[in-house]
Amino acid sequence: MKQNVIIKQLCIGSYKVNTYLLICPQTKKAALIDPGGEVQRIKGLIEDENVELVSILNTHGHADHVLANQELKEMFSVPVCMHEEDDTFFSIQEVREKSKKELGLPAPSPADIRLHDGDELEVGNLRIKVIHTPGHTPGSVCFFVEGNLFTGDTLFVGDVGRTDLTGGSLDALLKSLEEKLLVLPKETIIHPGHDYGETPTSTIALEMEENPYITDFILAE
User: Is the pTM of this model over 0.70?
Assistant: First the structure.
C-alpha cells in the first residue's frame, strides 16, 4: 500500500512533549508539529530524513509545546503557525505572566501565520486540515492529514488535556470532542501531544469505547 505521509516522532523535553515531523514522501517537504525544546535533536531528525522543512505548526500556545519555535524558525527560515485565538490570548501580558507561573516556562512569541478553523495547509502533496478544538486553551487545534489526527493536548489516549490552566474550559473541550472529533472517520489514528496512555496511539473508535470523558460525559447523555 502506498504511503502518503511519513510520520516521525520524538519525545522532547522535561514535559515529554510528542514532537512530530510530517513528511510528504513524493516531494520530501515536511512540517514540524509542537517543537518542545531540544533543538539539536529536532535538527538532527530533519537532517537525517533529508527533508525540506516548510513550516512549524503549534497545536496550542503552551510553552512546553513551543519552546523551540524561534530557534528552529531562524535555523530553517520557516514560519511559525498558531491558531489566531491562542496567538491573541498569549500576547496578553497578564496571561503570559500566569502561564509562566503555571508551567515554569515563557509564553510563546507571536506567530508568523495565524490559523483558522478549516484551513488547509499545503506541505508538498499533503493537505493538512486545521480543526479548531478549544478547551485546553482557547485556540487549541488538531491537525488532520491522511487519516491521522494530531491532537496536541485536546485528546490523549484514554484521557483529555487539563482545563484548570489559564484559558481552559472543560465544557468547551467536551463540545470540541463531540462536534469536531467524534464526527471524523472511526478509523482515524490519534497521535497525542503526550504519551500518557496505555498505548502511544489510538483511534476515534477506541476512544469512543474506552475514554471516560467520551463515554461518561458525551455518549451517556
Answer: yes
